[in-house]
Amino acid sequence: MLHSSVLAYWDCLARSDRNPDIQGYAVRLSTYIANLCLVILMTWSQGNINSSVHVILMQAYTIFIAASVSLSRKKLSIADAHFVFSITISPLSLYLVYSTFRLMMRKPTTLYRRLGESKTWTAIWSTLMLVIWIVLECMIYATRGYVFDRETCTIVTFKGWLFYRLAAAAVSFNYALFFVPVLLFMYLLYSLRHCKDIYREYKRCQGKVVKWRFPFSRILQIPWSFLRPS
């Protein structure tokens, strides 16, 4: 019974219509590339990151607006609704919402410390994005008879939703593994570019500690000197 319900759910998604304005190839490609580039900028950039955060919000709300237009015309398909929910919940968007909650709880957050003057509006738009996620998810499973009345199938169950989320998370994790070699290559380039700085830091750390007695233990002392608090 569980297997048949899951297959029916996936078959419904596969046969559902797709709006190219929402999940066209250009939209997907630009979203993936932008998120990858923004991760690099937000991680290694030392300046203001307002532009990077604005790009994240602009991409999410552009897709939300396209989905709202389709919804107002009763042309929002089940596949489009799932895509909107999945593509906007990127790791950067989740990090933005998480940082907003930390800001509301008056806890220190690295993201908002680097935003500068647009903290209030960023917090408002981030909170609204979370509200849209919740409304969209409830709409898919609570009002499917009204929203998806043009669909040929409206088989949307909690079991199918659960397996869909697990499968989507597994696929996202597999795609993320492809970026591990890229990350290692970037660390290699950084090490070659700043090898002198790394060596000077190593010598500085070595000058503060007493060398361990046994020769073999000194090999372990090299990484330990970087891991311990300076």
TrEMBL record:
This protein's UniProt keywords: Membrane, Transmembrane, Transmembrane helix
Membrane-spanning segments: 25-44, 51-71, 83-101, 122-142, 162-190
Taxonomy, superkingdom: Eukaryota
Name listed for the protein in its UniProt record: Uncharacterized protein
